[in-house]
Amino acid sequence: MDRNPVTGTFSGNRGLQIEEPLIFEQDRPGRTGVDLPEPPKIESRLGGLDRQGAIGLPGLSEPQVVRHYTRLSQKNYAIDMGLYPLGSCTMKHNPRLNEKLARLPGLADLHPLQPRRTVQGALELIDTLAHWLKTLTGMPAVAMSPAAGAHGELCGIMAIRAALEARGDPRRRILVPESAHGTNPATAAACGYAVEAIPANERGRVDLAAFKEALGPDVAGIMITNPNTCGLFETDILEIAEAIHGVGGYFYADGANFNAIVGRVRPGDLGVDCMHINLHKTFSTPHGGGGPGSGPVVLSEALASFAPLPYVVHGADGFRLVEQDGDPAATGKAFGRLKSFHGQMGMFIRALAYMMSHGADGLRQASSDAVLNANYLMASLRDELTPAFDGPCMHEVLFDDRFLKDTGVSTLDFAKAMIDEGFHPMTMYFPLVVHGALLMEPTETESKDALDQFIAVVRALALRAKARDAVSFQEAPRLTPRRRLDETAAARNPVLRWRPPQPRGEAAE
Ligand SMILES: *Cc1c(COP(=O)(O)O)cnc(C)c1O
């Protein structure tokens, strides 16, 4: 038997990490997990349209199927396995209490088309969560239906567009700081606006002079993340809000970083007109790997009446949804509907469970601890790595790649070496305003022990890079089932369909 050239083992496995072929590649004709008697012959009434060939499902025994999916499940890295320091993503621990409540049969088995009187509790839950989102943000209204942060941005910008059109003043431009998450300019462009980038100053904040320069009567609004994606609080935020309102524009806040300020700052007090809240970042609820998410949007008085349908109202006959503009309880001129039904119920349950179990003091402590943990990373790494900006950070800490200068090691190499050490890498090359960015967000639930271990490893890797050991970085990761992949080719030319290597014979039905 030859050794596998990649793993160096005969089996192709690496320790107890087992290689796993596609389920179709494990097919053997006639193999099956069940033993059923031959069906009786029946007379076909399909007029000759009966399937002639085999259906093409793979034939496997039950234990093979169980192993297949168990092995696949172990190929995911997850917050439940270790530190997940992805900046901007807020990969926070999801308390098991959330899961217990979301799985209660009375909630988990709901159907959105059930009669209203059978879902009073669910509607009340949405209404209660809406109340706390409004309270925490200091905003008068909230649209609950958006399905994620980016969807919330779409909701907010559509509300702004509807408000501008209602006053007969359609505008053309939306200002977006250079450090913004890519979804911000994408949303503005998708809504038909020209996007104008506002540079960052040397303190990593919006360049106030450049912002004021860009203002004009055709500016529909500005989209700002606060704290921003450099992990810094925008200290000129009141002046920015005043200036955008001064030209008749609106202030969109990207609230994905709300985790850093919950219980300390109310965005409504900063002059915000609308802000999406990533329930899946700020109020736990698991995400990553593609969802699910939930992105309710809080709205100011000026935008509230344009909120999308449906929304929950409460009257003498209990809770119900307003589904149409003509509804007697409709409070405004909704810009339309963003989603079938009313939002991500499972996420609502988890977010409310998180809020209720933490209480006001607990939420405030979570945001304080998130900021403390990030600053602990910053303070512990700042002499070996190069912080991108001076001064304390908020919930995430941004380094640039100056510490790797002349080492032959890139940010990418550094991240790959972290994988060999058993750490999911931080966010790389984002935000774009600093060179070779490494953005780390530890979140509030990591213990000092976990942070200390992470810090020790990052410091050791930095020292190794500076000792000119570039080759070991360029070869990383060495211990994973796959080494470096051609990510560009994979993205440009994805292989989405398995094709049998040769014409199939009689496969299992
Ligand atoms: C995560 C994030 C978004 C997008 O949220 P999704 O729920 O992933 O669509 C937008 N802005 C910032 C700053 C984010 O971190």
Question: What does this molecule look like?
Answer:
- The chain has 2 domains: 257 residues, Type I PLP-dependent aspartate aminotransferase-like (Major domain) (Aspartate Aminotransferase, domain 2); 126 residues, Alpha-Beta Complex (Aspartate Aminotransferase, domain 1).
- It contains 15 helices and 13 strands.
- The longest helix has 37 residues.
- It is α/β, with parallel strands linked by helices and 509 residues long.
- The site of pyridoxal-5'-phosphate has 15 residues, from helix 5.
- Pyridoxal-5'-phosphate (PLP) binds next to helix 5.
In one word, what is the shape?
Answer: globular
Any idea what the CATH superfamily of the largest domain is called? Type I PLP-dependent aspartate aminotransferase-like (Major domain)
Given the helix and strand composition, which structural class is it?
alpha/beta
> Could you estimate the helical fraction of the residues in percent?
25-40%
Q: Please work out how many helical segments DSSP would assign.
A: 15
* Average residue pLDDT: 94
CATH architecture name of the largest domain: 3-Layer(aba) Sandwich
Q: Assembly state here?
A: single chain
Give the C-level CATH assignment of the largest domain.
Answer: Alpha Beta
> Got a strand count?
13
How much is the radius of gyration in Å?
27 Å
What is the CATH topology classification name of the largest domain? Aspartate Aminotransferase, domain 2
Query: Reading side by side through the largest sheet, how are the strands ordered?
Result: 1-7-6-5-4-2-3
Beta content: 5-15%
Low-confidence stretches: none
How many structural domains are formed by the residues?
A: 2
Ligand species:
pyridoxal-5'-phosphate
